[in-house]
Amino acid sequence: MRRRATLVLLAAAAGLGALLTVAPWLALTAPVGAPALVVEGWIPDERLPDVLRLAQARGVRQVFVTGGERPLGRYLYAGDTLVIDGAPMSGPWRIQLAGLPGVHWQLLGDTLRLQAGTTDGALRAVDLQVGSGVRQLRLTGSAAVAPGDTTALLFVQTLSRAGEGLAATGDAVRVHGAGGARTACALTWAGERAQRMVALGLPESQVLAVPGLPDARGRTVSAAQAMAAQARWLGLGAYDVVSLGVHARRTRNAHRRANGDAVLVGVIALPDPQVPSRTWWLRPHAWPAVAKELAGLLRDAAAGTFGS
Question: Which of 31, 118, 120, 221 could form a disulfide with 266 if both were Cys (CB 3.0 to 4.6 A apart)?
Answer without folding.
Answer: 31
